[in-house]
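WARN retry 2 of 3 for item q-0093 after timeout on previous attempt; input resubmitted unchanged.
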Amino acid sequence: MDELDWVSIKSGLLEMARKRGAEVVRVGDPALLEDAEPGLRPSDLLANAKSMIVLGGAAPRAAEWESPRVEVMETVGTADRMTALGSSLARHIEETYGYYAMNVPTATDENDKAFLDFKAAAVVAGAGSPSLAGPVLDPTYGFLYLTVILTTLPLPPDGPLDEAACPAPQCVEMWDEKGTTPCMAVCPIDDGGCLGGEIQEGLIIKRRYDQERCRDRVYHYWTPGYQAALERALDEPDARKRKMILYGSFFTRTMWSITYSGVSQGQCFECIRACPVGSEQRELV
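OK item q-0093 returned
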């Protein structure tokens, strides 16, 4: 096929994804991730992958952000909507064009490692840019759940964003006045939090991110929490205390999370709640 055909096919696929619920749809070059560590390279999943379609969407609704009960955000999982969309698009590519297409699993592999660096994929495709808070942020929508489709279909890539979403102008202003930003203020790394860094001439420098601490808070009702609670219950010699662990609210909610949710869901959104990027999507007039 000539270049015009590939452009037309790409346009049709991206429009299909948008109609089915994706807010952001971009195509990246998988070769740009081939310098990642073994096990995280696109070629480790699909040999001869030519394109990497990155979809972003299914963020929590405005009412969920507005709720005064933090348990709402802890238990409402919407990431599986993007996973289903990715699987549908991959199937369409294979059945319609006869090229291999794989929706990259959002779960973890051996040693709790991801199958692919979703953040890096989103950045090289232009589906967002890195942030002080950790997730990639789209300039318009802010935080979005991501899914990635690897395919041998050779689509023209989009490339990274020309201008980063983070830091936002409000964050630069707050840094100049107070020496912090909205996300660092709610989760300061030097006071038991996860985030730190500086802003110099409108750019993030000396970023500090305690990934392990953040992971424990984001997924405390997910598989790691289940494993920790189960180990504690097995080691508890007192039958009464052991029963309290197994029938307590923490273990019960953890069991609910890993049995009724198809994918891991975040339980701590406080840095994103404070983030001005995409804040218009989290509020209704």
